[in-house]
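Hi support team,

I submitted a single chain yesterday and got back a structure, but I'm not sure I'm reading the token output correctly. Could someone confirm the output below corresponds to the sequence I sent? I've pasted both exactly as they appear in my results page.

Thanks,
R.
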Amino acid sequence: MSAALQRIAAALERMAPAPMQAPDFDAADAFVWHVAPDRLEPVAEVSRVDLGLLIGVDRSRDTLLTNTEQFARGLPANNALLWGARGMGKSSLVKAVHAEVLARGQALKIVELQREDLPSVSRLLNLLRRSRHRFLLFCDDLSFSNDDQHYKSLKAVLDGGIEGRPENVLFYATSNRRHLMPRDMIENERSTAINPSEAVEEKVSLSDRFGLWLGFHPCTQDDYLAMIDGYCAAHGLSVDRDVLRAEAIEWQATRGARSGRVAWQFFVDLAGRHAVRIP
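Hi R., thanks for writing in. Yes, this is the structure output for that exact sequence:
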């Protein structure tokens, strides 16, 4: 009988687990949110680049850094949507800005949230709300498909419902789409809905809830080469300038694209060929 009762108790525990205990937020400056079961896992070392190596995004860099510093100091700040061309350093900028704020002596935690875990965001917010720390909630590569209802969960982060968004939580997201949803989805709503304007407004209003919109656009060839020069200088790799330029242009031509990501991939190849280790 006792064994049966233990199995019943275990089953009930799985169905309705005890509330999650807050982790030791002093153990790290970065965490990743996981579900099933709910937990915040500390990240010992965040994968990021130095803020000074992000070329061609000066205005977005300065705006996001100012906004983040204001929040870390307990001042008003806006949720931010970083949108635009792929590979232009949107997620790298968020992580680099967080590191810069820490380097300037401000206390700020960053928590990464996956798009598919958005339905659990209310539980995460309740956990963070009880902490004395300030949190930058970060969702990378955020977008929604035609039948995706997760965008409704995101409104809980941006508006917070009746309780409001926790005062100690700020939300940053990156996306290739300005309105987070594909254009054909918005056009389909416009063509099939009984009231087209209302249907479209519901979709577009989500991105309107971000106070900051920071656009990222394809880089010029000069910016692309400057990115590579910066990587070479930062890692002590010396290559003849004419050779470097010719190889870099050939690399981006074979890729059919020119971006910060392509510049980094070229540098990784270059460092490997010159036996230079990248920390």
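A quick pointer for reading it: The first helix runs from residue 2 to 15. Let us know if anything else looks off.

Best,
Support desk
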